[in-house]
Each structure stands twice: as C-alpha cells, then as structure tokens.
Amino acid sequence: MDDEGRAYGRPVPDFDHDLVAVGPGTPGGELLRRYWQPFARSDEATTLPRTVRMLDEDLVLFRDGQGRAGLLYPRCCHRGTTLHYGKVEDAGIRCCYHGWLFDTVGRCIDQPCEPDRGRHLERYRQPWYPVVEFGGLVFTYMGPPERQPVFPRYDIFEDLGDDEELVVIDHFAFGGPVVAPCNWFQTHENTMDPYHVFILHNAISGPQFHPDLRQWPTVDWHQTPDGVMSTQVRRLSDGRTLRRVTEVRVPNVRIVPTPTLTVLGRTNNMSWAVPVDDVTTKVYAVVRKRRGEPAQGTAAYGDGRTWFELSDEEHQRYPGDYEAQVGQGPVTLHSEERLATSDRGVSMVRRQFRAQAEIVAAGGDPVGVAFNRTDALMTVQAGNYVTDEA
Amino acid sequence: MDDEGRAYGRPVPDFDHDLVAVGPGTPGGELLRRYWQPFARSDEATTLPRTVRMLDEDLVLFRDGQGRAGLLYPRCCHRGTTLHYGKVEDAGIRCCYHGWLFDTVGRCIDQPCEPDRGRHLERYRQPWYPVVEFGGLVFTYMGPPERQPVFPRYDIFEDLGDDEELVVIDHFAFGGPVVAPCNWFQTHENTMDPYHVFILHNAISGPQFHPDLRQWPTVDWHQTPDGVMSTQVRRLSDGRTLRRVTEVRVPNVRIVPTPTLTVLGRTNNMSWAVPVDDVTTKVYAVVRKRRGEPAQGTAAYGDGRTWFELSDEEHQRYPGDYEAQVGQGPVTLHSEERLATSDRGVSMVRRQFRAQAEIVAAGGDPVGVAFNRTDALMTVQAGNYVTDEA
Amino acid sequence: MDDEGRAYGRPVPDFDHDLVAVGPGTPGGELLRRYWQPFARSDEATTLPRTVRMLDEDLVLFRDGQGRAGLLYPRCCHRGTTLHYGKVEDAGIRCCYHGWLFDTVGRCIDQPCEPDRGRHLERYRQPWYPVVEFGGLVFTYMGPPERQPVFPRYDIFEDLGDDEELVVIDHFAFGGPVVAPCNWFQTHENTMDPYHVFILHNAISGPQFHPDLRQWPTVDWHQTPDGVMSTQVRRLSDGRTLRRVTEVRVPNVRIVPTPTLTVLGRTNNMSWAVPVDDVTTKVYAVVRKRRGEPAQGTAAYGDGRTWFELSDEEHQRYPGDYEAQVGQGPVTLHSEERLATSDRGVSMVRRQFRAQAEIVAAGGDPVGVAFNRTDALMTVQAGNYVTDEA
Predict the structure, then answer these.
(1) Does residue B389 surpass a pLDDT of 80?
(2) pLDDT above 60 (res C1)
(3) Which chains touch A (3 or more CB pairs under 8 A)?
(4) Do B322 and B269 contact (CB within 8 A), yes or no?
(5) Tell me, what's the pLDDT at B360?
(6) ipTM of the complex in this document
(7) pLDDT at C59 (0 to 100)
(8) Shortest CB distance from C79 goes to which of A3, A205, A337?
(9) Contacts of residue C5 in chain B, CB cutoff 8 Å?
(10) How far is CA A259 from CA A233, B142, C175, in A?
(11) Can you give the pLDDT at residue C211?
(12) Which chain A residues touch B346 with a CB distance below 8 Å?
C-alpha cells in the first residue's frame, strides 16, 4: 500500500471571498449593486406583501392599489415591525402595528396615532430601492443612488411583433429546483464551461438535451469588452456544422441558447444568476417567443422524467447541473481546485469579475453600465448557428 | 426617481443589550432574578420530571411523592446525566444512571453505589432554586439567596369567596400561541402602547376585542413608584365614559383589564411576561373568577376564528399581537427606531427598567421587593371603569 | 428555606477538550488516527457511492467493479464536486462533472476533457485513506502513512470452524438507535462503570438484561498494558459464582461479554466506539457465532418491548444506556463532575487515554500498535465465567 496522497494532513481549505460574497460592502457585492438586478417575477408583486431576499438583504415587495410595485426595507422605521404584515392601500403600504403609511418609494404619508396625523412626515422615510419591470421580471438597483445607470435595452428583446411576447422561466438553470443552495458564482461560471455538457449531460447521465450535443466539439473562448464568449463547433451527422455560441456579461448575465436546439440562429433568451445570499442562488431567464407556443424544453433525467420524479438514489445515478453545482458545497473551496486546460473559460470569467470589482472599489464605474438611454443597448451574439460548411 | 432615503449604505443595526439580555450576569437578567417569577403551571409539576427553560437556564421541575415541587439544575452533580430521566420517589428524585437521590432542595440523601450508601452525603448538593405555588402557577426565585424577597401578595387576589377561584390562562398575550419566538421586552412594553389597539386590533384587522375599543381615546401615562400606568378615556355610544387603566410593574408584571370588556371595574387578572431566553417569551395570566364561569374571551381574527385556524396568508391579512411583536424580529433593533409622541409610555417603561437594573448592578435592592410579609402587598389600580360623566 | 447550594452564581461549566475532540490535529483525534478504525459495514460499500463521516471528516466510500472498496475525500481534486454523485466503473469512480476517474487509492487515471485525456495524470491524486475489510466491517487508517500499523488479529476471532461466522451488530451499545448524538468518550468510559448496571438497568428501569445481573457484585478494576479490565464477582442463586470480566483497550475498543448471559466462558464479541464527530457516536460489534443461530439478545424496556416502541414518556420512565449517555449532553461537562469511589474505572480509562495521547503528541507510537504481523495479536480475557466456588 503506498503512502502518497493520503487525506491525512491536508491543508485547511479556503475560498476566494472576493468572488463569492454578495453582502453590502463586499467587493463582489458592490460590483453586483452597480447593475439593475432581477429579484422577483412581476406576478409576485401583489397587494399581499412578499418578503424577498436579494444580495443578502431582506426586503418587502408589494404592488399598491394604483399598480405601482414598491420594494422597501422590511422593518418599519417607527418601531420595527415587518411590513410583511402591512396592509396595502391605494397609496402604499400601512404598517400593521401603528398604521404608518409609506408609498412605493418609502415616503411616509400618514402617522394616524401622532398629533395631526404627523406634523413632520417629511422627516421620515422608509429605506427603499427603485424598481423597474421588464419582461415579466421586477428589477431593482441596490447601489449608490448617484451611480444609478439607466435601465438597459437588450437587442434580442426589442421590436416585438404583435404575435410575440417575453415570458419568464425560472427553472431553467438547474433542470428542476428554482433555487439552489449554493453560491451564485459556481453556478455562473458553469456557463463558460462547455466541456461538462459531454460528460455530465451525456456520458454520465445519458443525453439530457439534444442528442447532437453529444458530439465532441472544438471549443474556444475569447474575452469581450464586457464579458466572455465561448464558441463550440460540432460537425453534425448530416454533414452540416453547428456553431454554438454562449456568453456571460459582467457581472451576472448569462446567455445560453437553448440546449435542446429547438431554436436555431441567434438566441431567443437570456438569464441572470440571482445571488439571493452567499449560499443561495436563483436563475431567471427571459424568453422571446410566439404567443401560444411553448417556451422551450427542459432537461430530461434517467428515462425522460423530470428532476422532481427521481429518488435520492436516482439523483446519484443521473446527476444534472443541480447536483454538480450544489455538490461543490455551499461555497466551493477554491484552494483545493486544480484548474486545467478545459477550465480556461472559468478562469477568464473570474479574472474579469475580480478586475471589475477592483474598479468599483477604486471609485470607478464598471463596464457595461450606461447613464443615458442611447448607450444602454446590449447586443447579443449567442446562438445555435447551423451552416453548410463542412 | 429621487435619490433620498435609499436602503443602500444604511448603518448596521443594533439593539440595547441591557434591555433584552436575560441570562445570568446581564443587567436585565440580574434585575429579573431579584423577583419571584412564574415559570410553569402547577399541573406541570408531577412525578414525571419536566425540563423547563427560564431566564436562559435549563432546569428540571418535578413533584415528589409527598407533593412538594422541586426545581433543580438538570445535570446530576455526580456524572452529569440529566435528571429529566430521573425517577421520582417519595423523598425526591433519583438519577437514572447511578441512583443518587436528591430532595426538592437539592440535598443528596442516597448514593447507593458508594460505600455505606455515601459517607459524606452532606458534601453533595444538587444546584437548586426555591419554589412557591400560587394561583395555579409555580414561581421561583433565581437570584442571590441573601437578597431573596418574601413572596408578594396581590390585593386583587386576596379574600377569595367560597365560590371564587384563581385560574391560569397561558394563551392570553398572543391571542393564540402560548410561546412567542421573540424577546420578552418587546412584548412587555406593548402594554404601555395603547395606540396600537385602534390600529392593529381594529383598523388593520377588524375588531379583535370589544367594539367600544374602536373609539379614539384620550391617552395619558404617568410614572408610579414601581411601574408605569396608562389611562385611556373614551366617550361611549350610550353617552357614558370608559376610563381604561393599564399598568406595568417592574420588572415584568403587566396588568391589562380584559379587552373584551366582559369585566368592568377593577381588573380581575394580572400577567407576567416570562423570559424563557433572549428570544423566547411566554405570558402567564392569573384570573380571579367565579367557579363554573368561563375565564375570559380571546381575540378574534378575520371572521371570528381563532388564531390557529388562519392560513399564512390570512395571518398577513389579519395580524394580531403575535404577528406585530414577533414581526419586530427575534430581538427588535432599537438603533433603527424613531420613537414618536405616541410612544411615550414605551419610553417610560424602558427608562424605569434601565434605572432599576443600574440599582441592582450597584448592589442595591430594586423597587417593589419586600423582605417581610407586611410590606409585600401589591395594590392594583388597573380596570375598565365606566362612569356617567360625559 | 436555606441558602446553601443554590443554582445562582454557579461557575460556567467546561469539558476536557483533550478527551473529547476527534478532529485532525487534536490530541485525542491524533491518538485515534494511529489505529485501524471501523467506519462502515461491508455491505454499505457498493457501486452507489456513500458519504460517510468519521473522526469529523467527510469521506466517500464505494466499491469498484472489481470488488475493491475505496475511501476518498469527497471533493473532486479538479473542481470540487462531490464524488457522492460519481459514477462507479470497473476501474474506480468517475466525477460526474468533467469525468475525471480515480481508482480506489485516489490515482487519477482519466481526464476526458483534457488533451490526450490528461498528459500528466501522475500529478493528480484524489486524497484517500486505505481500507481493510474484516468481520463484516470496513476499517480505515486515517493517520500519518509512515506510522501505519499492520491490521491487528483478534484471538477470539481466529480459527473459525466451517459452521462459524463473524457478523456485525450495530445496535448493540444503545439498545436501540445505532447512532447516538453525544461524544464518543462518555459512551466509551461507560464500559468501565459496572455499577450502573444495577441502578440503570435494574433498579430504575426493571431488569433489561439477565436477571442474575441484579445481584450486587464485588467490583474491581486493574490497569492492563493496553487498557483497563474490570471484574465483577456475583454469588448466583444456585450457589455458583459468576465472574464477569469486561475490558477496554486504547483507544476505543470495548469488550463486553453479552449481558444477557446467553454466552458463558470467554466472550464471543468485541466492539468499537466509533467517533463520527465530536457529538456523534456509533458503536459496531463483531460477534462470532454458529451459522444459523441468532447473534445475541438485546435490552428489553418496560414490559419487554424494544427501544423504538416506547413513547417519550416511557423513555423517561424506562431509561437505558441511550438516555443515560445522551442525557449527559452532546459533550459531558467534566468541570461539574464529582467522581466518587465507584468511578475508579472511569478515571483509569481517562488517565490512560490522556497519557497515550501525550505519547503521540510527543512523536511516539502509542500502546497496542504493531508494525509486523507477528506482534499484532490482541488477546482477549473478557467473559462470563461461572465456577462452582462459593
């Protein structure tokens, strides 16, 4: 029995805090806060308040009687009862305890137990964040107000025809559960890791997507001004060539053309890896589609069942993205990694994220934010491109 | 979109440790330990040992074969097995592991595995606290023995007629659950916050108590030697006047006449906010009543149902004391509060509690403790007083 | 009411870290790591990977297609996904994420996404521990490789007849649950505490083992070169004498002849207290028996039922080893103990364990490890010996 490589005496592992921490004041958390971030579906903003967590902050989302969505700090600025139990009215949300009323941007507009219902209402403001609704999602900007960018435009979602619509898919990333109990970054960097498609989604678990993805491709990555792009070229069985392009954009946009290959040409969707807190991640996708048609297929497991139909043992036998990424632990331990040739895309995503976080920490504006509507167009290149070239 | 009052960059919140901590050695914990405190119902003291938590200490309550209640530190002073598994005998409780026998005040009276069944029994004492039973409750004194006051008398509970009795109600405070997962102080100070009755219990959730309490009153507070008293005067629909008086006494007595107004005149009940630990609170009420008659009504929710019949969504729509107080968090965050005119009673309760804790920390005796039976009478003024004055 | 011995103001309790900590680098943990330790049943090593915890380390156990058991650190040395989701093949286990393949001793033998399937495979080694299977158990050695002893022989298990077999019993120690939520040492030292048999297993809960054990014995202990031995002599009702001998061996072997007295003479079994982590313990026994015959009886509770058939109240009324040992807390608090005459065996076990841990900390080899097969025989003396002497 040889003595090499025993588990005895191995060093205490560690992770790269700057990549994974999302709370206020952390390098990554401050970078993420410089962008509009989706945190809920629009249909979750109703007159029944909803407590949501985003970037390690608890907040209350509601929609007032006039249809305006509001996102407030939960603890009423008077005596601290959560607005989760608040009563939503036409003009805002009223705390259940003493009835202070706040509008969707936190302005206090009534204090019924105070003399004259509040003589200095202007001195009270419930902490708030701005919201924008787009494509079925509610976005917020949680950064410093003086650095707030305009809400971006996405070229693949512009000029919708009358028969087209944008819809939200929130079970896209993990093939089953909407929320994964692991850090967002290990989920995000998976997008620039095209090799796992052949192993995890084919060799290990049988084909979970389109069978053509089983072909071994030529893979390449290159840096773009605001992200990383990967191209995977496969010769198809009919002699044609599939050029599959995927993208990530700083900080947490991921653009993955549907792996079931039901949509060819430029992609019809983009996604956001949503950091709920340091150990919880949700992924929202917005998909452009024709009204009345299905959005897109999902991964299949084992004999074609959905993720939820598998037993614990079957999840071990047919793992997917959820198992592989959650299986890296609540936060993966970077000190134990041995990155190899096939991990070049992962390294590029990390390097760029760290560099942009440093720009923010130094007082600058990160890549991809725009302060006027004209500059705010994001141009997408990702897609499944099939050509006749051999 | 304006830039003011964003949730971004708000300071890290904090709470007033001296108000909320109840463990040994904390200012508030030591003040609470200078008084007899109820911690269980008398019918919970049986020959089956019961583990209870009080003031952040775990203890075992039992009743020996002679009917005496005992309250001991759980870990047997021999080898540390909990007396929760002890066997109760006529003379005390016997540890299950090696059979050491302790009486209700912790004296070791048998060590069956030792020579001569223990040659130095007097050297062993299981840590203990004294108990007194009153009104269906078991009280203990957990402070320094040399400062132990006599057990108080309460004038509203004296001279019971033959057809009268004292009964315990332990679901009084929260309108449903007996135990609330929050600090005791935010529960206690609610007693001096009469304004929430109009908002929480009427405007927000519909009338949860007597409809007359929906009237807007004139509210006043004043300091008493050992507490704070609030008077709320309402003109009733029949032209008469309701003067409702509520009290708190240092450190954790609360005297709230029944809000269902089923008892007029001086109150028939008083309560204790029982600090189980820093984040758990139980409230016991003792009620004087005629035998055979019901004790008093409870709060109604929504369409008159009990708390336990409501769904999560209905608890959001019809919140009560439980939601408002637990909704302040496990420990409310005082640094974020904005106390206003209507919170004067709350401020008075806090100020007095802090002052009394300082007296104890400086080596003195706090207000309201008596060392002889004559001085130990507590006189109650709280009540629902209806008069003909306009 | 007297003032002595109140629970007020008692010192903050503490435990002896060196006795209880089992993690890497702790004195006791390093001593335990110098011996082969059982951690699973052989039938738990299959082609479906199984995550096990041992000595506060998480590991993955599997059996490859050639029947070899392997024990690896769970996080793949490439990108950290747990091998719990690995695919077991003839040659080893393949990580689900990117397909790196490791044999049972951690050697990397394939990297399918790397050029030439890995040009420097010899540079990669998944951290591993060696395993040996014996008596239906899987053992591992988790210490420094250069100090690895040969796997020991146990004289009571040698020279099996054709009609004999070794079987595993894993519910032996606690009379019910296989795993107990408490530190291993308080379970282990119980073996040298024969007095509790009369109290716990007889006087308190009624006879849980053979009724003859109800007799009060003469008890003695003596140190052996590698452990502690206890002899309990009882005069039986038929005039004969029962000499019951129990042993512990450094660090965590316990040899307890069956207390149901179904086996007389030298014992047919031995056990290991398995430290899963600081607050979790499992006990494995290996029993030598004739094929086709039952292994041995288990403890009876109340009216002869098994542990699992009792309610919470009945567990209070009929406690057994599980209640007494778990009832000492997750880790017993040594600072509060008052060891007495009857605890001499417990003291001896602790003293010897500490002394051996010091030897290891000073760079030596502890007692009972052998580096060649000849020296590796453990001779057992424990048994239930009945003689005619009066």
Answers:
(1) no
(2) no
(3) B, C
(4) no
(5) 98
(6) 0.94
(7) 98
(8) A337
(9) 105-107, 125-128
(10) 14, 67, 54
(11) 79
(12) 79
| pLDDT tens-digit map of C155-205 | 999 999 999 999 999 876 767 899 999 999 999 999 999 999 889 988 888
Q: Which two tokens stand for residue A47?
A: 């007159």
Each residue of C99-117: pLDDT tens digit?
999 999 999 999 999 999 9
Q: How many CB pairs under 8 A join A and B?
A: 119
Q: Which residue of A has its CA nearest to C79?
A: A337
In this predicted structure, what is the pLDDT of residue C256?
A: 94
Can you give the C-alpha Rg of chain C in angstroms? 23
Torsion on CA atoms B303, B307, B308, B314, rounded to nearest 10: 60
Question: What residues contact residue B369 under an 8 Å CB cut-off, 6+ apart?
Answer: B34, B35, B147, B149
pLDDT for B237: 84
Q: What is the dihedral of CA B51, B53, B56, B60, to 10 degrees?
A: -40
> C79 and A205: CB-CB below 8 Å?
no
pLDDT for the residue numbered C390: 63
DSSP A289-348: EETTS-------BTTTB-GGG--HHHHHHS--HHHHHHTT-SS--GGG----GGGHHHHH
* Contact state of A337 with C113 under an 8 Å Cβ cutoff: no
Name the amino acid, one letter, at B349: V
Residues of C with CB below 8 A from A196's CB?
97-98
In this prediction, what percent of chain B has a pLDDT beyond 70?
98
**Contact between chains at A1 and C105 (C-beta distance less than 8 A):** yes
The chain A residue lying nearest C59, using CA atoms, is: A7
CA torsion, ordered C321, C325, C326, C331, to nearest 10 deg: -160
- Cα separation of C333 and C322, whole Å? 17
CA-CA distance, C48 to C333, in Å (whole number)? Answer: 40
Express each pLDDT in B171-199 by its tens digit. 767 678 999 999 999 999 999 999 998 89
- Cα gap B7→A127, rounded to integer Å: 4
Neighbouring C-beta atoms of residue A27, cutoff 10 Å: 18
Regions of chain A where pLDDT drops below 70: 1, 174, 296-299, 390
- Name the pLDDT band for C206 (thresholds 50, 70, 90): confident
The answer on pLDDT for B1 being more than 60 is no
Taking CB atoms and an 8 Å cutoff, what residues of chain B touch C302? none
Phi, psi torsion values for C212, nearest 5 degrees: -65, -25
Query: Of the candidates B198, B201, B239, which has an alpha carbon nearest to the alpha carbon of residue B219?
Result: B198
All chains having 3 or more CB pairs closer than 8 angstroms to chain C: A, B
- The distance of A203 to chain C (nearest Cα, Å) reads 8
Radius of gyration (Cα) for chain B, nearest Å? Answer: 23
Q: CA separation (Å) from B27 to B116, B354, C143? A: 46, 8, 49
What residues in B contact C341, CB-CB < 8 Å? 113-115
Name the minimum distance, in Å, from the CA of A168 to any CA of chain C. Answer: 28
Q: Nearest chain A Cα to B189, which residue? A: A79
Chains in contact with B, where contact means 3 or more Cβ–Cβ distances below 8 Å, are: A, C
Structure tokens at A62: 């509601």
- Count of pairs with CB atoms under 8 A, one residue in A, one in C: 119
Report the residue from C9, C323, C336 with minimal CB separation from B96.
C323
Chain B interface residues facing chain A, Cβ-Cβ under 8 Å?
A: 1-10, 13, 195-196, 198-200, 203-205, 313, 315-317, 319, 323-325, 327-329, 332-333, 336-343, 346
Q: Which residues in chain B have their CB less than 8 angstroms from residue C16's CB?
A: none
Asked if C346 and C122 touch (Cβ cutoff 8 Å), the reply is: no
Write out pLDDT tens, residues A67-96: 999 999 999 999 999 999 999 999 999 999
